[in-house]
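Example record used in the benchmark description.
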Amino acid sequence: MRLVWTLLFALAGGVGFAASPEDDYIATRDKAISDIAALESSNAEVETLDAANTKALADLEKRLSAVLGPLSVKDFPATGTINLESLSATDIGFGMLDGLRYAKSDEGPSIVATTRGLVGRWLQSKADEDDESLRLPTGIDEALKLDAFYTQAIGADAAFVKTLDFSLKKPDGADIAVARLGGWTQDVGPIYDQQVVVAVVKGDRILIAEAPASPPVPKIAACEALWTAADATAQKFQETYQGSDLKDQQAYDSANAAWEKGDGDYRACMGERLPNDAAFPALLAEVQQLADHMAGQ
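Model output (structure tokens):
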């Protein structure tokens, strides 16, 4: 009898300590990152690095597909491609959120699917960033409310900047639902190609959608005037800076300050006035429908 109980405890212990598919994925990803870093340190040829990166990403994509299974959201494909763009720390697109991206085209709507566990690990790594501007909170609910989350999770070479948050009705069965309007940019000033991002957490799954604003966000004259005035002021300071033999630092700083303030004033104006525009109800309805579909309704 003692031998039987010993075997049972041994089997239970073996099951308890077995690596989960997510653990296996993370270990494989980290090893691939380490291997590519070693190749870079040895001055390997670009072709060798590219081949190693492509092979590793393909393997990771298969592992994520096994973890996540097929996507079932109306108007989106069932199979996706890995969200990570590179496993080299020197490349743009390194360190994005672990998940699969589902899209019919590069320009159209897309969804990144992942799990609570993968997002939790990713947020923990961002909480320890040396660069304060890259740090994120470890709580999923809190993180989903920040532009920096979308910039680092699903963006590669531009920052996501919010115009406004939608008053979204949480779909039945969803634990968290967040939607915001904004755009991708590398500079200050109006972003006319506005996008919506919608995040839905349901059970263990987290889906993050990005889609062009539909209908397109209209220009609002009062907000345009704020930016035009700020830009004119900044341009004058910039002319003073460029015309100075000593490159007047105060003029340079004043120009940037004027642009930054104009950008903030413009977005605040849009956030205040857009909900009263005739196009807004249709835009909100499209966002709500997307959230509902992501939650399986």
